[in-house]
Amino acid sequence: MDQTAVTDQMRLGLRRFAKAVMVVSARHDGVRYAMSATACSEVSLDPPTMLVCVAQAASMHMPLAAGADFAINMLHSGQEQISRNCGGAKRGEDRFDEGDWQDDDGTPWLADGQASFICRVVNRVDHGTHSVFIGEVRAAHTAEIVDPLVYVDGRYLEPAVDGRYLETAHGPS
User: Which terminus of the chain is more exposed, N or C, with fewer CB under 10 A?
Assistant: First the structure.
């Protein structure tokens, strides 16, 4: 299979990978940054460590490359608009218009989200068009009720009462 075909098939395969929706947030030189992401994951519990993959062309790349602490904020099912705002519907400081954004020693985090992990950058790996930022978790916050916003095949889904997932009213992004 040629590289273009592999890339196309990988893209299709990844659309089937249901993931909780995250917003990565940071502050650098007094400016707050936020971006929607699904390329976030745990790395280790000892030490508690997470990672986020960021396109080198994204505005979030610069603050993380400069070593800014960051938060990985997992959204709950009612926060689709925050994901859309941080995914390009809004720019700059306007991305913080919705949600209960708090400050943890300079790092903005979403207090009314499903969970938030405040991280200190400890490593960076550049590969292709992206950088993987590995952050040691210095604080974690969780909501009492488990109700994550999920994204799969270009759609936001939310859990139904019986545990099944339903497409949100807004449909595909």
Answer: N
Classify residue 99 by its DSSP letter: S
Vertex 139: Cα angle to 105 and 58 (nearest 5):
70
pLDDT digits (tens, 9 = 90+) for 118-163: 999 999 999 999 999 999 999 999 999 888 999 999 898 866 655 5
Which residues make beta-bridge pairs with 19?
151
* The pTM of the whole model exceeds 0.85: yes
What's the rounded Cα separation, in Å, for the pair 11 and 96?
Answer: 30
Where in the chain are the domains?
A: 18-172
CA 136 to each of CA 20, 84, 167: distance values in angstroms, whole numbers, following the listed order: 20, 27, 34
Superfamily of domain 18-172: Electron Transport, Fmn-binding Protein; Chain A (2.30.110.10)
State how far the Cα of 95 lies from the Cα of 101, in Å rounded to an integer: 10
Other C-beta atoms lying within 10 Å of the C-beta of residue 4: 8
Query: Across the strands, what pairs with 109?
Result: 102
